[in-house]
Specification:
three-stranded mixed sheet, L-arginine/glycine Amidinotransferase, Chain A, N-succinylarginine dihydrolase, hydrolase, EC 3.5.3.23, alpha/beta, arginine metabolism, N-succinylarginine dihydrolase activity
Length: 449
Amino acid sequence: MSNAFEVNFDGLVGPTHNYSGLSYGNVASTGNQNAASNPKLAAKQGLAKMKALHDLGFKQGVLAPHERPDVASLRLLGFGGSDAQVIARAAKEAPAILAAATSASCMWTANAATVSPSGDTADGRVHFTPANLNNKFHRSIEHPTTRRILQAMFADESRFAVHPALPAQMHFGDEGAANHTRFCHEYDGAGVEFFVFGAAAFDSRYPKPARFPARQTLEACQAVARLHGLKEAGVVYAQQDPDTIDAGVFHNDVISVGNRNVLFHHEKSFLHQAEVLAELDRKLAAAGGNFIAIEVPLAEVSVEEAVKSYLFNSQLLSKPDGKMIIVVPEECRNIERVWTYLQKMSSAGGPIDEVRVFDLKQSMQNGGGPACLRLRVALSAAEIAAVNPNVMMSDALFGTLNAWVDRHYRDRLSPDDLADPQLLVECRTALDELSGILALGSVYPFQMV
């Protein structure tokens, strides 16, 4: 029996969680613009999911939020004075930029990095490349802090390699694990890494979406594969269907999800879908696995229903009996055809035989479901032992973090509240305490002054 596991590291929602509608191409994000948010409830909903999966026996960790508003970025854009004066001037002269600098979007840690387990890499280490998230300003400022946090969590350089992000330029637009899935027979064995891109920057033969941006490039995928030392026999590249991107599928994890040897996907996920599935089947077989594709027909669930419900922005988790749980948001139960499909699939005798529903409305209203909230890292038992133990979920940590949220988070945040300089003070106070709880050291700019 394999002594390796897939660990989910969920993003802890930050104190400035708000609905500014910043993510063009993400229908839920733009559709809820200017609504009041509840940061305290958002953080507690995320923690409840982490704890529930921990209680079911799955290995679960926590990724810390970032300092917001990002005053350093505002200073780079010409807003001067004290921190309070910078915020006041940005609020008066460029409220949209202030909203971007205050976003809590790092909570969606599927975009934090791309991860290659040690079974796939040339040097036998687990490799992380933080995503540059170059397509959106509010996300492009995340990767330096993300890298410091990952280095504090995975500090043993004999087992882990945390690379810098790719060049922050459109040709190498990288959105992290939201466009990356790994298939394998056992988590610590050789696998097949599946990179999905929206467009090619240097090759005009590839089509592009017409309405919404293609955030991930083929060139970024290829660069990450090189950095991680992946073999050609263990890599598959696929292009998203451009029409599906234009329907609101801004990342691959909105239209497909994989785990171990199973790909759960929509009929309209990829260009040349039959060829993509055949290549995955062939390469996984060579690695000792048996590839299973579960394709949801367009006739049963439309792309629009998939986007609205976030059916595919779900988590697939392997149980000890070899079957899988699918973790979905409450919205799936509220859309009749989606719920009907899930009930049929889970009772059909296939690999996915259990559905777990979670209320993640605060995240969902900003366009992030269960899969967005977690970064998957396949680790051997020895590698897990080398991870910073303070970031691993436990009964004690769950209680500590809930109490921390109660002390520091507001239960209502409106667009006008972003101009309040006290919000920065509250965020820094909370994060200073959190970095001690999680034993991260000085990872935030305000701690390094």
